[in-house]
Amino acid sequence: MAKWRIIGVFALLVIGAGWHITKPAPLPSDALDGLTGDPVNGELVFAAAGCASCHTSEDGPPTLLSGGRTFASDFGTFVAPNISSDPEHGVGAWSDLALASAIMRGVGADGEHLYPAFPYTSYHKAELGDIVDLIAYLRTLPPSDEPNAPNDLAFPFNQRIALGPWKFLFVNSDWVLQDAATPELMRGRYLVEALGHCTECHTPRNALGGLDTARWMGGAPHPSDEGRIPNITTAALSWSERDIAEYLKSGFTPDFDSAGGEMAEVVKNTGQLTDDDRAAIAAYLKAIPPVAE
């Protein structure tokens, strides 16, 4: 009897420790103390982070964040939520702290885990000041009363409790490019690995949906099973840094082709960045290890 009591106590301790490690962890209550949002810089962060690409309707203006776009995946279909300033259907009633916790920690206003279809797995590397600036800019955008639609996920993927262990396994604050020896490379790393979340599409995933960092930016199957997202390491992309920067500005390739599909949406965002930022992204892509096709 004593043996089973010991086993029971041990099991409870393991479960308790697991819950403590994997429970939703919003930002501390004082995380934003002393920070004042700058909507001018926030507009640049908005473009770098690609917010409009997911949270606007396909035929809507780029500042009406009404949500509704669908994203197919191996785990079901996710629907982008309304993140406009509407207090009922959007996030207008959320505090700045709640919004920052959602963006950087993947924790909703009610304390629930958010699905990583929202790329907080990259955004958590962002500077808190940039996120506060982004929120200040979001506050200036028009409201939308478009109701949110539910995700279409099968069991067990519709159980948010599983996201705690997933975050524990796959949300990592370490930079993949460890040796960013120049300010340009540091900026490029920040734009690609954090704000731009380029890796969320261009890096393959393991069976649990975590990024395979050993094949960083080495291309991946398209989530909709239509084609493949390209390898953009030097093993497959021979463009010069100037070619890459021009593509991110205009959408034109060195062969006079133009960006299409989702990448056309990305270029709308990167085209709003500075020439220096686009050059930094190009330098980063030349610095990461090549991944064989």
Automatic annotation (TrEMBL):
<keyword id="KW-0349">Heme</keyword>
<keyword id="KW-0479">Metal-binding</keyword>
<protein>
    <submittedName>
        <fullName>Cytochrome c, mono-and diheme variants</fullName>
    </submittedName>
</protein>
<dbReference type="Pfam" id="PF00034">
    <property type="entry name" value="Cytochrom_C"/>
</dbReference>
<keyword id="KW-0408">Iron</keyword>
<dbReference type="InterPro" id="IPR009056">
    <property type="entry name" value="Cyt_c-like_dom"/>
</dbReference>
<dbReference type="GO" id="GO:0009055">
    <property type="term" value="F:electron transfer activity"/>
</dbReference>
<feature type="domain" description="Cytochrome c">
    <location>
        <begin position="183"/>
        <end position="289"/>
    </location>
</feature>
<feature type="domain" description="Cytochrome c">
    <location>
        <begin position="37"/>
        <end position="142"/>
    </location>
</feature>
<dbReference type="GO" id="GO:0020037">
    <property type="term" value="F:heme binding"/>
</dbReference>
<dbReference type="GO" id="GO:0046872">
    <property type="term" value="F:metal ion binding"/>
</dbReference>
<dbReference type="InterPro" id="IPR051459">
    <property type="entry name" value="Cytochrome_c-type_DH"/>
</dbReference>
<dbReference type="InterPro" id="IPR036909">
    <property type="entry name" value="Cyt_c-like_dom_sf"/>
</dbReference>
